[in-house]
Structure to design on (158 residues):
């Protein structure tokens, strides 16, 4: 399973008019989730970060920020993405040791949620996740799409 970080949710929703290439890759990834080719997971933590970003980019206009967040949530909730809650405090404390190499403390809840959900890959546009191994692998959406395309080509020639 693939855990989608906030940066991928942003590319798919709020940044679609600014980051065209990332939006295309995120949309293709969500297309694979929609057709059940892959399973995608995100957490309440990622959704909360998305809300914070929508609000902080429109502050002090709470109505506009709330509307942007609502539209983003509607887009995301309209997909077959799976959702996991915030990691419990105990889980975060216990599992934090597994991801002690992460340099950005805000990435830890994502890694813990992905691990608890049984994901093997964190998909993000955040290079801090390069240090997430060995229990999880970091990939960008483009890398996931390329790997899946290569796998399909290999299977087609067998």
């Amino acid at each position: 399973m693939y855990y989608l970080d906030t940066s991928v949710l942003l590319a798919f929703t709020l940044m679609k008019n600014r980051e065209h290439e990332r939006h295309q890759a995120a949309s293709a990834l969500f297309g694979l989730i929609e057709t059940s080719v892959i399973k995608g997971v995100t957490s309440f933590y990622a959704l909360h970060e998305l809300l914070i970003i929508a609000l902080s980019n429109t502050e002090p206009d709470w109505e506009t920020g709330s509307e942007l967040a609502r539209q983003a949530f509607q887009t995301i909730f309209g997909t077959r993405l799976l959702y996991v809650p915030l990691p419990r405090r105990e889980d975060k404390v216990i599992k934090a040791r597994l991801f002690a190499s992460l340099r950005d403390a805000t990435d830890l809840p994502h890694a813990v949620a992905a691990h608890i959900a049984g994901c093997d890959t964190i998909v993000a546009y955040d290079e801090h996740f390069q240090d997430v191994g060995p229990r999880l692998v970091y990939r960008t959406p483009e890398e996931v799409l390329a790997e899946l395309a290569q796998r399909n080509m290999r299977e087609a020639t067998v």
Q: What stands out?
A: The mean pLDDT is 91.
